[in-house]
Write a structure and sequence with these properties.
605 residues; alpha+beta; DNA Primase, Chain A; Dna Topoisomerase Vi A Subunit, Chain: A, domain 2; 5 domains; five-stranded mixed β-sheet; 16 strands; globular
Length: 605
């Protein structure tokens, strides 16, 4: 993992799509949350090769081959780690510096510092909102916007007090300098003096998909015109920093990605998203003050197949929707457009027509092609011959960008019915424009894979050095359970040390997961698996931990049962090997205490 930093590794992988990549080598079909294919590493007729788009991992339930995105590229294309990562970087137009690191150690420390300052600031803003005195007006504002306390907590909303240095003092007390606070975008320089950037505004934390606070948006609570007639910005957002780039991040994706649906609703503003979530529709997200970008689109397509665009239908919103449609199409996704007639935005629409009304609008969302054609129809009077000719020409030009021949044929027929011009003539215009548009790039074929994927070997199970299969299975299941819950991971760290696992792979996994959980970070499976890159056996064993599909009715009880099984087996093996009576007596006492502890654990659950 020395070739690149974790941040650069994540950036490269997140800018690609493991499903899109794998589809160049094998036939991939959706199966529940994951995708399945016939394993490229052993002969099989029934698919057992699973791909997890969210975690960017793969696992074959047949031969045991497992790993992360880069390791899949290494195996499929017979590349070493450096060349495989370089290949993915080139696909995403990311340049890897000669030293393999996007940043120096100083920059890495700076990133960690800003993330920690943002975390402290988010807590400060939330506490200020909940303060009976300082947060009164802000709570009244959120109440007027009909936000519940649960919603406020869910999104970590807050309030910046109407002072010049409240946050500055808070962060200075934690040991940060004015220069660091300004660099984090939490303060600005005014007349040679540092002052809080956000003052007397409600605060919306911006959280990335790893669950880290990377920036903030602040909104005035009333008019943005001061008494002297001067206008201040209605919204004040974080500047670009080493951890925040508004063109590469999406508001509320950290929540929406867990909505168990392969479609997302794209809105324009924070309050639109929050109102939709509060209405019980958890798959809503927003860009951060910009039109949808290529980087954002690639990120979104990791979590969905279709995006429903819900923008204001004024001129600016219409232009933004058209741009979003093209961006989504270029990324291989589908899109539709939600029309919210009678309201300026989703927040107002829900207030007027209720949740059921908004859900109806979602189900009636217009296909993106139909939306485009409806805008063209508005421009021309097709009762006029010249208008009709120009209308057909623009329709044909629009259809030339569509790859689905059935869709093209359907709209040509519809246009012919509307205008009275023959389908043949419209198809002729369509063909003219089609010849001018660039064709799609050819996909890599299975034959390409067969030529390049050489010298790949199937993995074998590790030797079970005096450890039963049952104990190995218990350790794997325990690691799988704690990988899904930070709370359970912290609890496990209190009960079982990493060194108590039976092999170095599981010791490493436990150590990394414990460290992440205690630091308040989301466990990044792909980065952890990368620890074992270059050792096929270890890659397979590590990645298989994160592909445990078993569901437990009581995760706490399962955690305690698995820890008990592992600890008991370890004690019994030591007792069988011990020859000194004093040591045996001590081990018996430890076993009795373990049995007693288990009863205490069961009472707690």
């Amino acid at each position: 993992m020395a070739f690149v930093s974790d941040d650069l590794f994540n950036e490269i992988c997140m800018s690609n799509d493991i499903i899109d990549y794998a589809s160049s080598f094998m036939t991939v079909k959706k199966n529940g949350k994951n995708y399945m294919a016939c394993c490229p590493f052993h002969n099989e007729k029934t698919p057992s090769f699973s791909l997890d788009r969210d975690k960017q991992l793969f696992h074959c339930f047949g031969c045991g081959a497992s790993g992360n995105f880069v390791q899949l590229v290494m195996r499929l294309e017979a590349l070493d780690f450096k060349d495989a990562l370089q290949s993915l970087a080139e696909r995403a137009n990311i340049k890897i510096p000669e030293n393999g690191r996007r940043e120096s150690d100083a920059v890495t420390r700076k990133k960690d510092s800003i993330i920690e300052m943002n975390k402290l600031a988010a807590r400060f803003f939330y506490d200020s909102l909940m303060n009976p005195e300082t947060g009164r007006d802000a709570r009244a504002y959120f109440s007027a916007r009909k936000l519940s306390k649960e919603t406020i907590i869910k999104f970590g909303l807050g309030y910046a007090p109407n002072t010049t240095d409240a946050l500055l003092k808070e962060l200075k007390d934690k040991g940060y300098t004015e220069e660091q606070i300004v660099e984090a975008g939490l303060a600005v320089m005014r007349n040679g003096k540092a002052v809080d950037k956000y003052r007397n505004r409600v605060i919306f934390p911006i959280i990335n998909v790893q669950g880290k606070v990377i920036g903030f948006g602040g909104r005035v609570m009333g008019s943005n015109e001061l008494a002297n007639g001067v206008k201040i910005p209605k919204y004040l957002n974080s500047p670009q920093t080493v951890v925040y780039d508004k063109s590469s991040n999406v508001f509320a994706l950290n929540i929406a990605k867990n909505s168990n649906t392969r479609r997302l609703i794209l809105c324009e503003g924070y309050m639109d998203v929050i109102s939709v979530h509060q209405a019980g529709i958890p798959n809503c997200i927003a860009t951060l003050g910009t039109a949808l970008t290529e980087q954002q689109t690639r990120l979104l397509m990791r979590y969905c197949d279709e995006i429903l665009i819900c923008y204001d239908m004024d001129e600016a919103g219409t232009k933004a929707a058209l741009r979003a449609i093209d961006m989504i199409s270029a990324a291989g996704g589908r899109s539709r457009v939600i029309r919210i007639a009678g309201a300026k935005d989703p927040d107002e629409y829900i207030s007027k027509y209720g949740v059921s009304g908004f859900k109806t609008a979602i189900e009636k969302a217009m296909p993106s092609t139909e939306f485009k054609l409806s805008l063209i129809r508005r421009k021309y009077d097709i009762t006029d011959t010249d208008g009709k000719v120009r209308f057909v020409d623009e329709i044909a030009q629009c259809l030339a960008g569509i790859t689905d021949s059935v869709e093209v044929e359907a709209y040509i027929k519809k246009t012919a019915d509307e205008t009275g011009i023959s389908e043949r003539a419209i198809f002729g215009k369509y063909s003219e424009h089609k010849k001018k548009s660039p064709g799609p790039k050819p996909d890599r074929t299975k034959e390409d894979y067969k030529r390049r994927a050489v010298n790949l070997i199937n993995s074998e199970k590790p030797k079970e050095d005096r450890v039963s299969v049952a104990v190995m299975d218990a350790e794997r299941k325990l690691l799988s359970v704690i990988a899904k819950s930070r709370r359970l991971c912290i609890r496990a760290s209190e009960l079982i040390e990493p060194d108590e696992f039976s092999n170095n792979i599981y010791v490493t996994l436990a150590t990394r997961m414990y460290d992440s959980a205690k630091a308040g970070n989301q466990i990044d499976e792909a980065v952890i698996v990368n620890e074992f890159s270059g050792n096929t056996d270890a890659e397979n064993i590590a990645a298989a931990v994160f592909f445990n599909n078993e569901e437990y009715t009581d995760n706490d009880k399962t955690l305690y049962d698995l820890i008990y099984t592992i600890k008991l087996n370890r004690l019994e093996r030591r007792m069988n090997e011990a020859t000194d009576p004093g040591e045996i007596f001590d081990l018996i006492k430890q076993k009795n205490k373990l049995i007693s502890d288990r009863k205490e654990w069961q009472i707690k659950t």
